[in-house]
Amino acid sequence: MGNCGTREESAVVSHAHQVQQLHMLSIPGRNATAPPEKKHSRSTSDLSDPSTPCNIEDSRKNAVLYTHVIAFTLFELETITKSFRPDYILGEGGFGTVYKGYIDENVRVGLKSLPVAVKVLNKEGLQGHREWLTEVNFLGQLRHPNLVKLIGYCCEDDHRLLVYEFMFRGSLENHLFRKATVPLSWATRMMIALGAAKGLAFLHNAERPVIYRDFKTSNILLDSDYTAKLSDFGLAKAGPQGDETHVSTRVMGTYGYAAPEYVMTGHLTARSDVYSFGVVLLELLTGRKSVDKTRPSKEQSLVDWARPKLNDKRKLLQIIDPRLENQYSVRAAQKACSLAYYCLSQNPKARPLMSDVVETLEPLQSRSGGTNEVSLSSSSSTPTLMGAGGPFAMGGTPDYRMHHRLGGSVGAGAGCRSPNPNYSPGGAAACRVR
């Protein structure tokens, strides 16, 4: 197993003794854990079946016990994925292929039974070693109910793998846009929006703020009870500190979600994430993709088409997902649309903080289970967004069309210095509201 990375790349892992321990762990023969001698016999073919509450509940309890990031061997991960069998594939992306697996004592003595997702870096893919290392560094230290839990990693030779808790219901993208799926209810959509908002707020309010930079429906994963968790931290960036107003960086992200000022200048702030959140909230409200080339030209960009309607109390109900079949509160819809309107402001300073977004979404959560049939006459006032500091000022709605193509890859590093597998982060801090 090769030595991993540079000190600059591992700046997030700041304690020297942790780095020293990692260096020791990366030397063959220094890992005290005996290699597994046999493969587990349990099938993982039913891992995505949400109809097994007993297994899901056991998995949830066991996941809590994994407080340390584990350094897995390549052999162990080959074992739990049956040598990365094609029928174990959960999905594929810019990073590479994700496989389902199952860890327990048959893999390594002392491991609790847990279904996992194993992400394998594609050596010829768009993302490289730096993104892998970024993800390990951030998720290895951050813990929050709305961030996917990193169980472990593997760094052997040129192999880079990540092991996460398994999310039984997959991505929000699939639930919103796959035709075969049952439409998400209004209450579930608002619950998902709140969970994702809490995850972003936690990152923005960390001791060293973190800008997520790639907030989109495919990166929001859902647990068995539709708890939303942010995944894929490969593009995450440490935010500005002190007198800094922004972080200058190459423009990376996903077309249709990136904030316009970031695309134009490369200046990254927490408000860039707020804009991306506004796009996802708009997707939840409308059931439409951020960019859809199959629609008429004026409707292909969701933001361009929908934002002017968000502040019109009569037009806004026309853009609500028809699959909801009017099963939602008009007042809640107005507030959610108003929130999306402000998040999508062209002026970054006019966008709310994510802590304010959380405050706005919390009253929209369904507690009684009841719904009101939609009626234009049921609302008598123009929607306003009320946060801790009162309604946000109304801004203009200049036309915006993105002409930049986002992307770009970072070349693979010479090696990888991984975070301390024995580092145990503190408990998840509560989402701080300013």
Automatic annotation (TrEMBL):
Which GO terms of the molecular function aspect are on file?
A: ATP binding; protein serine/threonine kinase activity
List cellular component terms (GO).
Answer: plasma membrane
Residues annotated as binding ATP: 119
Pfam families named among the record's database cross-references: PK_Tyr_Ser-Thr (PF07714)
Record-annotated Protein kinase domain positions: 84-365
Q: Which family does the similarity line name?
A: Belongs to the protein kinase superfamily.
Q: Would you tell me the protein name for this molecule?
A: non-specific serine/threonine protein kinase
